[in-house]
Amino acid sequence: MEKIKVLIIFGTRPEAVKMAPIVKALKKDENFITKICVTAQHRDMLDQVLRIFDIEPDYDLNIFQSGQTLTQITCRALTGLESVIEEFKPELILVQGDTTTVFTGALAAFYHSVKIGHVEAGLRSGNLYSPYPEEANRMLTGVLTNFHFAPTQNSKSNLLREGYEEDKIFITGNTSIDALQWVIDKDYKFDDELINSIDFENKKVILLTSHRRENIGKPMKNIFSAIRDVVDENLDVEVIYPMHLNPKVREIAQSILGNKDRVHLVEPLDYLPFTNLMSKCYLVVTDSGGIQEEAPSLGKPVLVVREETERPEGIESGTAKLAGTDKNTIYEYVSILVNSEEEYKKMANAVNPYGDGRAAEYIVDAIKKRML
Q1: What's the Enzyme Commission number for this chain (predicted)?
Q2: d(CA 44, CA 199)
């Protein structure tokens, strides 16, 4: 039997996390010859995940440059991928999510008449500029895709509404849930002794993340101010905020949350400590996309501090609430979850809508049925 040549392309930490289960599944299946190409759109954060999951890229474009623009990322990735595709001659290229690497990977595949599989297809916020540039990236990728691996029924519905053929759409769940099963350790010890010293059993620890471009400025000031006020009024609440490296984000965080009792501004965490921190915390307040999927699988309520989300399944199932960026609304939502055990349990015990941890298996099976 002739084997299928698959090229897996990714460039950032979130992509690497969500592609890792697929890499493992394809590598152990004798029907495939699988090679991995990283663009290294992000460098250090990507390398962390490669080490955790013991993944050795076959091709490393190493395109990262400090201060890089979206145009520069696109041009360097597209040029580098051309050489890789011409050398390996894959029959299928897999990309994941909505980064600039994803779009350039799909475009490079299209230019070489290679079939494209889009993992985590069909997410839509409804606003082309939020999140930016991710909403455009995933829509542009969809146009070029042959196999849409949608994590949920809602994602499939988005694709059908846009005119994609139903027999090219596969509901798989999200591979981030697969990955979490490998890394969570109830006895995990952090390198940061400050985090180890926190009483997670008796304190209501809020894990805060905020970094989105569209939130920098007044929205982010509102988010941090609301959290500060909740801490002031509730002595059993502590906050951990792994600060994003963006100087503008750090300046806002330091001005509002710096030197604040029971608020811990820490350096960014690698995937392994971050996910284990998420498993120990009480509540997550975030403007991230992937965390909206991961936290519910750990039984943690999520407050999404954005004006819209491309992951409405969490809102609909009750594992997440869309809090927006108004200070008073955020304060109200956080306060309710901190002070009402009933409301907290409603969210913590809601059914996670993002799958059963077997998404990679379903994706590989779908590829085999269509290509063997």
Answers
A1: 5.1.3.14
A2: 30
Active site residues: 98, 120, 134, 211, 213, 244
Torsion angle (degrees, nearest 10) of CA 329, 288, 69, 77:
-160
Q: Which residues pair with 145 in a beta bridge?
A: none
Q: Are the beta carbons of 306 and 287 closer than 8 angstroms?
A: yes
Report the distance separating Cα 279 and Cα 120, nearest Å: 23
Tell me how far CA of residue 105 lies from CA of 18, 32, 38, 88, 371, in angstroms: 16, 20, 10, 14, 20
pTM for this prediction: 0.85
Res. 122: pLDDT tops 80: yes
pLDDT tens for 217-238 read 999 999 999 999 999 999 999 9
- Cβ–Cβ under 8 Å, residues 16 and 94: no
